[in-house]
Amino acid sequence: MNKKNIIAAVSALLLLSIVFFTSVYVFSPAGELQHLNNVEVREYEGENLSLITDFRNNSIRGTPDINIKKYRLEIDGLVSEKKSLKYKNVLKYINYSKVVTLNCVEGWSVNILWEGVLLKDLLNDAGIKPETRTVIFHAADGYSSSLPLDYVLDRNIILAWKINGIPLPPDRGFPFQVIAEDKWGYKWVRWVTGIELSENADYRGYWEKAGYNIKGDLSGPKLAD
After folding, report:
1. Are 112 and 163 in contact (CB under 8 A)?
2. For the residues of 170-188, what is the DSSP string, one character each?
3. DSSP helix/strand/coil, 48
4. What are phi and psi of 38, to 5 degrees?
């Protein structure tokens, strides 16, 4: 191949690479590289998954409009050091993936691949005070619910930012959702903005105040005794 043909081949290869790169990535106004063309995963390790569209929004005030540039995940209460984490800083923690079924008291369920960080890692970084009994989650729409600290730590509960391989869409809990395994859906707090550690083992969130069981166990009663 002569020099002219080599130059032409290299130029064509470079052009093809540029076209591919720009079709998959785009730079945000802040100069951050953003991935495009996300494809929802439909099967994971031989297990069929539900579609993202298979479950309901269920926000108490409609889908919150969250400005991710201003967003902070606040971790406070009975901690040694309060944390105010940017979205991108939360994602820097080790990520884990797991298929978990969400069951709603309304009678529907979805089998979803979740990816996120361990709440245990976030809480340990903040420092858990000995008197802590409960982890309270606050959401952007005003919703709240709680889980026992021992359950969160022992079960390695995930704070998810991905659903079926793609970032949580706004109407599915963006930026973060609690994956409360073996609990009814009202314990799976979406649009999480705050995590509060408390000694109050009887904390009642939105639906618990309306009469739902504080434990929220799938194996237990739906309503309070």
Report:
1. yes
2. GGGTTT-EEE-TTBBGGGS
3. strand
4. -65, 140
Half-sphere exposure of 49 (CA within 13 A, CB side): 19
pTM of the model: 0.81
Contact 34, 25 (CB under 8 A): yes
Residue 148 CA to residue 150 CA, distance in Å, equals: 6
In the chain, DSSP finds a helix count (H) and a strand count (E) of 5, 14
pLDDT digits (tens, 9 = 90+) for 85-115: 999 999 999 999 999 999 999 889 999 999 9
Residue 176: closest CA among 110, 93, 111? 93
Strands annotated E in 23-72: 25-27, 33-35, 43-44, 47-48
Q: For tokens 């963006």, what's the residue?
A: 174
The Cα-based distances of 76 to 38, 89, 116 in angstroms read: 34, 17, 20
Give tens-digit pLDDT for 26-44: 333 333 333 334 688 888 8
Residue from 218, 94, 214, 221 nearest 156 by CA:
94
Mean pLDDT of the chain: 85
